[in-house]
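Q: How would the structure tokens look for this protein?
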Amino acid sequence: MPVDKVFEALASTARRKILAYLNQGELSAGEIAERFDFSKPALSGHLRILEEAGLITREKRGQFVFFKLVPERLANTIFAWAAEVCPVAGPLKRESRARARSKKLREEGQ
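A: Here is the predicted structure in token form.
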């Protein structure tokens, strides 16, 4: 999943607020809606964007839909982004690739 989708999802104040609410625990769509003055289609759109970015998941239970965070997705995305912009990222990636090639060659030689 592209990092761009995550940052696009985080660009909206409303979506960041939804994530903050979900940080306290899972909520039903109705419980989320109570906290905002959105129309149902607008709320559905925000939830869809967060879900497509992999930041939340949904689970249908009976007639209710519950949402919860996928915290490791956000943490991994932020780390990956920081590694990309970090000045030492290039040398570290080259080192990792070189080590992987060496390991593969050793394994093939055995």
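Residues 60 and 66 are 6 Å apart (CA to CA).

The chain is about 65% helix and 15% strand.

Upvote if useful.
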